[in-house]
């Protein structure tokens, strides 16, 4: 059965059961437990919502990696964002889920309560109008995300340049997926037999960006969509590769993801940004895993225009978000999960974002739901 066929709900459920059986048979033939990691927040939610973990045999384990952009944003970035927000001459434009992400001492939500001008936007482009309406203010967009959102941030910079807007800036924390995959594979505490590669990111980047990592570490990767059957088909391909001793990039999302990705989006991103070392929550600084503005666009980089020094204080907390993001522990192994840390009072960023592992685990009953019911 190909990925292009449209199934009824009943056919989908039956096909899912068949796939799970085949996955189990193949996994058993390897003689060991297999562990696969998704590195996409949307996949995290889709897997939990469908109860795929509960469908799979005990020989196949799914773990969540650093696929939520809000979750991987480190304390020092949040501390800088809060410091800028507290200035009288600044307006912060940001996506809503950034408000509750903790810094080392506070959050944007607390800064907003104390009078900071922080505005929720649904696109970086919305910040252009805010800048036009407030010419006496510095409008700073919090550019957080992966390869998926980098083109829109870059396009916003280009639009501001074209319109002669000189009071719009970016505080960039864009992240790149392949370098962090390599960091995970070099981590002795992390063990994965393959990756469920991100669908949305791959629409932009294409599939070739993963080849160097997959080949170097001989670990398979499959790009999948977000429907339960699409994810199960991707898992079947992963188990198949492991059973055969193979390691390559496969694409189970061919109707959307092309090998070359979206050349226009990549061109826009590369025009404005270049790779740089950057920090990830729980993993420290990962070489060439972030994006910074090129010298030609430094006038839109708030850290270049208005440098600010902040002291990031190491927090004493039982929160284990850093380990959760590396797939070393599950949320239920954190002593705060579901007790002191809940969505309405999140202590760690993995509970803040709707794409966070802890938030998904909490919302979907810690695995009590099963696919098809």
UniProtKB/TrEMBL annotation:
Any single biological process term in GO = protein maturation
Q: Does the keyword Metal-binding apply?
A: yes
Q: Does the keyword Metal-binding apply?
A: yes
Q: Which UniProt keywords apply?
A: Iron, Metal-binding
Q: Which Gene Ontology molecular function entries are recorded, alphabetically?
A: 4 iron, 4 sulfur cluster binding; carbon monoxide binding; iron ion binding
Q: What InterPro entries does the database record attribute to this sequence?
A: Hyd_form_HypD, HypD_1, HypD_2_sf
Question: What residue intervals traverse the membrane?
Answer: none
Database matches in PANTHER family: HYDROGENASE MATURATION FACTOR HYPD, HYDROGENASE PROTEIN ASSEMBLY PROTEIN HYPD
Which family, according to UniProt?
A: Belongs to the HypD family.
This protein's name = Hydrogenase maturation protein HypD
